[in-house]
């Protein structure tokens, strides 16, 4: 039985850290948050007091120099992921980096190589994959419950467009809906199909009010065996958070696919017009993510999702952005 806890440091005070990841780690029996850093000591102290975190630092380097910290979570803006992942690795810390892991696949490779060189673990923070319903869903598909997969459809949108200073709306910081939420449907389709795409075609709305980042995008992702993912993502649209796997004999719908809502952990299987709801226990995805990360390190076992997976996802996201900007189909193989 695990007797000690993984000691975490948090590099930044982003909302995702404060509202989701830190509470998730604190729920865990295998992990604890011992320090948080911000660019200013006052903000770090405020968050540390609110969330009962023992130590606060006014500099990211100071946190990395703390010998008690074993792993760090990086929720910084996208353009800072590579820099601080590499610095954390060089400081001997394991890294859980917020998605998307980088700005492009070349950055992802640099991060992976730095962590391999330092002999530390690196994981991309796609928390949804740790929810038990996805294991259940994949098992049902493999058993032939809905026949052969004909296509996957997904949507992930929200409206925060009035927050003009948000980092999501800054080009140089890696802003845009494809980086922020489009990466989820891409990850989910790759996870479900256990295959890599062959080509992508994307159309996007680039907003002059938001530094010309893509505020809405629709994409066709072509997989082998004539299967495709179609999805849309956006940051200036009604909230949606869904996934549908369409088979020759049925379909599976996940109403709350990436962000779990109260009472919406379930998914729905429909065959020949008859639907059944598959109930799944209420769980904290962020807690499970931290538990799997710590367990792999403690047991010296491979992570459930290897760093190379982050590289492959980043490759598709980058191609989607290129396709949208240049209005052309991008081949990946």
SSE blueprint and pairings:
Blueprint: E1 6-11, H1 15-27, E2 31-37, H2 41-51, E3 55-57, H3 60-64, E4 71-74, H4 81-90, E5 94-98, H5 105-118, E6 122-125, H6 132-142, E7 149-159, H7 177-193, E8 199-206, E9 214-223, E10 227-234, E11 236-247, E12 251-254, E13 267-271, E14 274-278, H8 285-298, H9 307-326, E15 330-331
Parallel strand pairs: 1-2, 1-4, 2-3, 4-5, 5-6, 7-10
Antiparallel strand pairs: 7-11, 8-9, 8-15, 9-10, 11-12, 12-13, 13-14
Helix pairs in contact: 1-8, 4-5, 5-9, 7-9
The gross shape turns out to be globular
Number of strands: 15
Give me the side-by-side strand order of the main sheet: 14-13-12-11-7-10-9-8-15
Mean pLDDT: 96
Q: How many helical elements?
A: 9
Distance linking N and C termini: 45 Å
Order of helices and strands: EHEHEHEHEHEHEHEEEEEEEHHE
Strand content: 25-35%
Radius of gyration: 20 Å
Structural class: alpha/beta
Low-confidence stretches: none
The biggest beta sheet reads: 9 strands, mixed
Helix content: 25-40%
Description:
- The protein is of the alpha/beta class and 333 residues long.
- 35% of the residues lie in helices and 28% in strands.
- Helix 1 packs across helix 8, helix 4 packs parallel to helix 5 and helix 7 packs across helix 9.
- The radius of gyration is 20 Å and the shape is globular.
- The chain starts with 5 loop residues before the first strand and ends with a strand.
